[in-house]
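Residues determine shape. Take a concrete instance:
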Amino acid sequence: MAGVVALLIASGAVLFASIVATARVRPRGGLASLLAIGLIAWASVDLIVGVAGLALRNLSPATLLTLSFAYLAVVLLWARRRRMSKPLRERLQASGAAIREAVTWPPAAVATVLVAASLVWRVVLAVRLPVVDIAGWQYHLVTVDVWLQSNQIERVSQNTWTDGWPATGELLTTWLAAFTHTHALSGFTGLLPIPLGMVAVAGLARGFGADRRPALLAGLLFGMTPALVALAGTSYVDPATTAAVIATWWLGLRLFGERDRATALLFGTAAGLAAGTKDTSLFLVLPILGWVLVAAAWEVIVGDHLGAPWRRLRSPAAQRLGLSLLSFVVFGGLWYLKDLLIHGNPIYPIGFGPFPGLPRDVFFENLPPRLAGLTWTEQVVRSWTADWHLTHYLYNVRPGGFGRAWLAIVPLALAGSALLWRSRRWAALWLIVVPAAVGFAVLPSAWYARYTLFLPGLALPLAAVALGSLRARPASLAGFLLVGLAAISLAAANLLPNISIPLHSRGVARLTGYVAFVLTAPDSQRTNVDLAKDCRTFDALPTGETVAITRSYSVPHAAVGQELERILAQPLDDPTSDAELLGSMRARAAQWLVTNRDDGTNGIALADPAHYVPYGRVCNKGLLWRFVPG
């Protein structure tokens, strides 16, 4: 409990500092202010964890709490809070009035109630249910496990994924886990970015020229996307990536009209957070990032600057260029520099051209049987129509995931694109819509909603433009239609479990049984579900002992445990002899060995029963051995 209190206090300090910083940078508009608060808070958490883990090499709760208040003090000193709080308060009050006016539109009012109820329920689920997503146990949580057990941020070479993927999302998960030294709250990794994404979608709609009411509805409908909602409570970074990508698009558009340093700083931060959470976001943010940087550099070179040439470096354009580039590098680019220095490939583990890595097809070997043998187009169509047959959503739903409203959103989005063309909004079309469409077209797993959450993030603002062109009554009817269809899928995503929970009843009894299980079941039952249940064998291992695993074992987090009970040793390379395996185990001071059933290491262990005592099978095709040093 003390750890939870410390987390809340530290998070409150960061949030207050973010509000004060937003007052200082003075973004224009209520949505922009809300987005700035969210981006600054997220970036601040990453900075605090980064300083603690890299510079101080101490990720203890005391260190993080101290840094949080030190950061707050610095922000207060810089911003001169008394002078800046009043303008922010006035802007927030004005934006609150505008939002209340928009919410009075009946479709938006209904959607607001549904989204609010959904978010409250997702908070309950994130608190009461364990984090059991497969990718988390493979690499997201594994990275955090290693950082916390070593009390610093270091290279995590447990497998290809932990060693290569950018880890900005894992910095947020580390913040959630460090204070309690458990993963009890790590599911908020997938939940916290959802409100930020809703604000970004509404803002992007306004950037496209949509009216206030349909823009707000677009943001609310984004929060009702079932594939997004089902990821709340997991360690997946897709919600965070999507929110950052959409924020980058909107802030990039704002830079064309508001050439100020604050917008440039937030723009670079959003682009960095997008790139730092997932490298597939690069094709979405690099076009608008590159254009903004090139335009600023061109202005520096050819602009009318009085005095010595070196004064160009102090010009407003140079400042925008520097702030955008620096924040992008700090919050995202450094991970690619790390991969370039270590692996010789900035986007490792994806191999391309002369750069080493794995073939691209390896990353998309997740095709469900019902889509096998279909063309790319057939797969996408089958996935987009699958929601009409889904009665519940798994956290990694496939196919389907965009909800029943999606088939109505797509034609509206196409109409909105035509309206952008007619109104000659070339920046929106060529730097956002076209790159997103091209990226989607070349994506092998374009049918997978989790990989393509940027589509509703873009289609909904475009649909808002189309809705805004309608008369009041048709617009309201269309809005109600979208909300009604989305509500059906939202209910399916929330009222039945997104993970494997043993519920033996059917119909309404199944729903009430699920709610009762979440709210009243004891910890021993609630934590014994899905992957956690499958991997219970590891619970027999004593707390504090060290486990070595081979690189081929797919869920290293299982060996650590949800409360970080055991220590994960450096992974074992494929040993070729008993002496090599014995030396590796002794060097790691490990008491346990986990192998994959297909490992050649098993033959070595079986041939040396004096040192390796079989303990039985464990989850995900693993074998557990008790190591006797001898």
About this structure: The chain has a mean pLDDT of 90. The first strand starts at residue 546 and ends at 549. Residues 16 and 72 are 8 Å apart (CA to CA). The chain is about 60% helix and 5% strand.
